[in-house]
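Sanity check

After download, print the first record. It should look like this:
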Amino acid sequence: MELLGNGNTATTPRFTGPPDFFLPTLMTQDPHRGGPDFRSAPGTFRRPWATLPPANTNAKKQITYYHSGRVTDAGGLFGARSLSGGLESSPSYGGATSTRFTPNDWMASNQVHYMSSDRVRDSSERLRLDVKRLCQEADDRTRRTQDEVGRRLVDRIGDVDWWKSEVVNERDCMRTEIESLADAKACLERALAETEKPLYIAQECLFNREKRQGVDLVHDEVEKELTREVDNINRCQNELRGLIASAANQLSLNRSAQNELEKDSCDKGKALSLDGICRRLRNASGGLQNHTGIEKVDKS
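Expected structure tokens:
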């Protein structure tokens, strides 16, 4: 409280109404005696002793608190409440000014605090229960997701293992096919090489028959057969060359497919290894790290 002036020239401020938030003291000060006034409040304002929980739960004695105190007007020294609802300051005494509130004001302030604390506590309890429920739902959803992922990993491991065995079988069959096709191509090449001598002999016979003189130069059946033989050998050689070219092309395709099968088999082996590691992971496994951004993965 601020002292304005001194002695007989002191002025006292006047309040138009009680403050919005106040909590006056529990006991008053008597300016005549200089000590606290412990006189109890009137019967209408007297409240029972309320028991508060001790700070130490092991304490056997309980702490009591007297809720109300009486403000006395010693000889009209202090001001009274004005009819307009405000508080009037008491006349100056000894160069000091003072204001006092009634027990009703103090009780009303306590009631406001009690109601506010109840609302805040209820809101806090609801928030705590909501957080607990959300945590439980998140934990249940995580467990269900882990179980579903584990089941899918088991199915995937079975599928990948089966497809890996199929790829290995196809790779072995392709390897056998490549060997057989290479042998057939070698046979075609040998057959083509063996047709060179009969063709050479037939052509030499025709060339020598052209050296005949006079009436011996006739177009008989022998010459016709020799000509037909040369044509047949040339046709067979052309077909053999075509088959050799096709075999060479097929061998190239088969070797390319074999490489793809081997690569696919190796990839499936790595996938099996990774899936097996993921299947064996648990919440308590070591070396786990949280990676940011995984929740933004497009599931489509």
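If your output differs, re-run the checksum step. Summary of this record's structure: The chain is about 55% helix and 5% strand.
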